[in-house]
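Input.
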Amino acid sequence: MLTVNRLRDAYSTWPDPRAVPDPPWGSTRFVAVYITLANEGGTPLAYTRLDFNMQDSQGGEHEVAAPPDLDPALTAGTLDPGAQVSGWMSFQVPIDARLVALVYHPPVETAPLRAALPAATR
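Output.
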């Protein structure tokens, strides 16, 4: 099971990202999500942050960016059956993208998991 507990759109360590002089990210924005991944199967489940993509309303998927400076950051591990893990991940997406879901692509031959995004917070 995949759950997005919190979404921070236009995420930045700056108090106001619009105030950053000549932002290096140009026509993109950073989005941070706090997620919970639970292993509801009967075998251990390995995961890395690279298994996750942010999906936009056009069906495009955007890869994970560098780990955010938010604690705890979700990185990699193995979940035993019945276990779960929570943490932050960040994505760099087009500035005008309308984001609709977080997608987890398990490393095994199973269907991807999708979680709808909640309303954004700062």
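Residues 2-121 form a domain with the Immunoglobulin-like fold (CATH 2.60.40.1240).
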